[in-house]
From TrEMBL:
It is found in: Membrane. This is Tetratricopeptide repeat protein. It is a multi-pass membrane protein. SUPFAM superfamilies: TPR-like (SSF48452). Residues 98-129 are annotated as: Disordered. TPR repeats lie at residues 541-574, 575-608, 643-676. Pfam families: RDD (PF06271), TPR_1 (PF00515), TPR_2 (PF07719), TPR_8 (PF13181). The chain crosses the membrane at residues 190-210, 231-253, 259-282, 338-359, 371-393, 478-496.
Length: 686
């Protein structure tokens, strides 16, 4: 069977070639398809994780051995199985066995002109850096260049440009002398300049998000020894700095001699110098920048660079674009989610203020309420706002501005349940519900997955694809301005919120002081404490009600009535506030209004004996004795052991001419509270 496939592949059958490639790459779980058009063969590689560039070199060697008939051009394209976009592409010319190599200098050689990279047009998706023949026959380059153009190494002024995985020649990168197999290997990191701001927030985050590259450069034994010695010296200085900083800790702080200060300063200096020598000075090369799969190195000697072909940005721009997966834009996704979160927050505040205003009022009371409010917003965003937009539009406001779409793998929009599933997965797995510092680690993990595997866990498990289109400068400027505005409002809100927490704490302290003064009948002090709390920001029904009690005790009835009215306006279902309002109206002689207040209090608390008693007293003053008597009897039904109620009952019966019943009620009051007779005598002047 295999022999049949090889024969078919040698005859140029694309299906046979695809089967041979699939068999060879089966262990890497890579599938292969091949399409032939005339003399061109296009091979498409697909896997759950984007296939590596090295697979193209593997296929190139295999086809060079098979030499399929009639095929002159081979293109290999790779994609992630969850995306329809091409992640990278390579193309080369395949020299047929009937061809005989011709000297590069022969202008009459038709084969030399056929296989020269400059003699054929380059397609939009091909990798021009791999534009060469299978046998390494290429057109001559200007100047004395020893390196062929297909090795993935170039010079760009005083920098060396290389593709990831490219093998640097066995020559010393510092002296250009033969390295004789000696190599310097290191993993280097590169941070864009603006990561400095991120590093100011979290050094770990900056390091985690940095770009890494593993390099193996040729070096002579002398140069290699020199840099190893420098690294050793750097680590020795670092260790010495640690010792000098820790050693003084063995001495009591109060017995530090003057020279210890200089020892500490020296230790800190060594801690700064040591790592610089080990990590920077002792590195023969450093990364200037990284763009996709291309790395720019500084520190390479000029003779070494002169042996390399010139980097041609205009021709090789497509190669860079091909290696930078256009479907992977983590910062665009983050900006879109940040923008959508702000929009959801504003919308949630409006809805809650309309349908559940008490939540908004409690938000500034303490941090626990603030956390609960944040959780509600996240929940609304995950199960309501974002899913509705994704299943109807296929995008959200932030994603629309940055031209991002979320689809199923078949290209259809997400269903509502799928959108909810994705939103919850992002909220929990990607954002950790906004819980710091856990959310920092989950976001960094998502970033790493996206940049290394091309897809996040929630999209891979859910079967979703995220596509991007080119974003204009105007769109980026608009969303940057809006996010900046939201961040500014957030900072202002945080300042106000923290101020609210502080003011709430001070107000609570004043309220506690006011309650203590009120219980001690120190009404003036209580009034001042409640006024301080209200001035700071307290605006609850109890505080206004207690302020009314203090004013009532000071016989400032009109002011007390205003306080009670404000308390009732905040909480209209407080029976005690309605009862207190009735009492102050009685003291103002407005008995009809007082009875109305008592009636409202009784609706709220029908079994409160004191409210029934106060209502009976007000009705008695109005001359409505029968209604007053009924009200007092209801009070006694609620509490038959209260001397004040029996005494009020006795007075009413006396006014009604029921002297015997009045006397009996009076005796009952005295039996419950003997000291009551002394109070009665004082009132009567006896």
């Amino acid at each position: 069977m295999e022999q049949t496939l090889k024969l078919a592949a040698k005859a140029g059958d694309p299906n046979a070639i695809a089967q041979l490639i699939a068999q060879a790459l089966r262990s890497k779980k890579i599938t292969a398809r091949a399409v032939r058009t005339d003399t061109k063969l296009v091979i498409l590689l697909s896997a759950e994780e984007t296939p590596a560039h090295s697979q193209a070199d593997f296929i190139k060697k295999g086809l060079a051995k098979i030499q399929p008939q009639g095929i002159k051009t081979v293109a290999v394209r790779a994609q992630n199985a969850s995306s329809t976009r091409i992640a990278w592409a390579k193309q080369w010319y395949l020299l047929q066995p009937t061809q005989s190599p011709q000297p590069h200098s022969s202008p009459a050689s038709p084969e030399a002109s056929t296989i020269a990279p400059s003699a054929q047009p380059i397609s939009r998706d091909q990798d021009v850096t791999s534009h060469s023949s299978a046998l390494g026959q290429i057109a001559p380059l200007a100047g004395d260049v020893a390196q062929p153009a297909d090795t993935g190494i170039w010079r760009d002024k005083n920098l060396l440009v290389m593709r990831r995985g490219a093998q640097l020649p066995d020559r010393c990168i510092k002296t250009n002398q033969p390295a004789q197999g000696k190599r310097y290997q290191a993993e280097l990191r590169w941070l864009p300049w603006w990561y400095i701001f991120l590093g100011a927030i979290s050094l770990f985050a900056a390091i985690f998000l940095s770009h890494r590259a593993t390099l193996s450069v040729g070096m002579t034994e002398r140069q290699l020894k020199k840099y190893k010695q420098s690294a050793f010296v750097g680590w020795i200085l670092t260790a010495l700095g640690v010792i000098l900083c820790i050693a003084p800790l063995a001495l009591p702080i109060d017995k530090y001699p003057e020279w210890v200060k200089w020892i500490l300063i020296l230790g800190l200096i060594l801690l700064l110098i040591g790592p610089v020598i080990s990590l920077i000075v002792a590195r023969p090369v450093s990364i200037a920048t990284i763009r996709g799969d291309f790395i720019w190195l500084r520190g390479v000697s000029k003779p070494y660079l002169n042996r390399l072909p010139e980097w041609q940005p205009a021709r090789q721009q497509q190669a860079i674009k091909a290696t930078v997966a256009q479907s992977i834009k983590p910062w665009h996704r983050w900006e879109a989610r940040l923008f959508d979160s702000f929009i959801s927050c504003l919308l949630a505040v409006v809805l809650l203020d309309i349908f559940w205003p008490s939540v908004i009022e409690l938000t500034f009371s303490n941090q626990a309420h603030d956390i609960a409010f944040t959780a509600i917003i996240l929940l609304l965003h995950a199960v309501l706002f974002e899913p509705i937009l994704l299943c109807s539009w296929g995008t959200t406001p932030g994603k629309a501005l940055l031209r991002i779409q979320v689809r199923q793998r078949n290209g259809q929009k997400l269903s509502y349940l799928q959108a909810v599933n994705r939103s919850l997965s992002v909220g929990v797995g990607g954002m950790a519900l906004g819980i710091h510092p856990i959310s920092l680690f989950t976001m960094l993990s998502g970033y790493r997955q996206l940049t290394t595997k091309g897809i996040t866990t929630w999209d891979r498990v859910g079967g979703f694809t995220v596509s991007h289109q080119k974003v204009s400068v105007l769109r980026r400027s608009v969303i940057a301005a809006l996010i900046g505005l939201f961040v500014f409002l957030g900072v202002v809100g945080t300042i106000v919120e923290e101020s609210g927490y502080a003011n709430h704490s001070i107000a609570q302290e004043s309220i506690v002081n006011g309650d203590n003064f009120l219980n001690a009948a120190q009404y003036q002090d209580a009034l001042e404490a409640y006024d301080d709390a209200i001035e700071i920001g307290a605006n609850d029904a109890v505080t206004w009600g207690n302020r009314g009690f203090a004013l009532h005790g000071l016989e400032q009835y009109e002011e007390a009535l205003i306080s009670y009215d404000k308390s009732i306006k905040i909480d209209a279902n407080d029976a005690l506030a309605w009862n207190a309002r009735g009492n102050v109206l009685s003291d103002l002689g407005r008995y009809e209004e007082a009875v109305a207040s008592y009636d409202r209090a009784i609706e709220l608390e029908p079994h409160n004996a004191f409210i029934w008693t106060h209502r009976g007293l007000a009705l008695g003053v109005l001359g409505k004795h029968e209604q007053a008597l009924a009200s007092l009897k209801t009070a006694l039904d609620q509490d038959r052991n209260d001397a004040f109620i029996w005494f009020a009952h006795s007075n009413l019966l006396y006014k009604m001419g029921k002297y015997a019943e009045a006397q009996s009620a009076y005796q009952r009051a005295i039996s419950l509270e003997p000291s009551l007779i002394d109070e009665i005598n004082k009132v009567n002047g006896l």
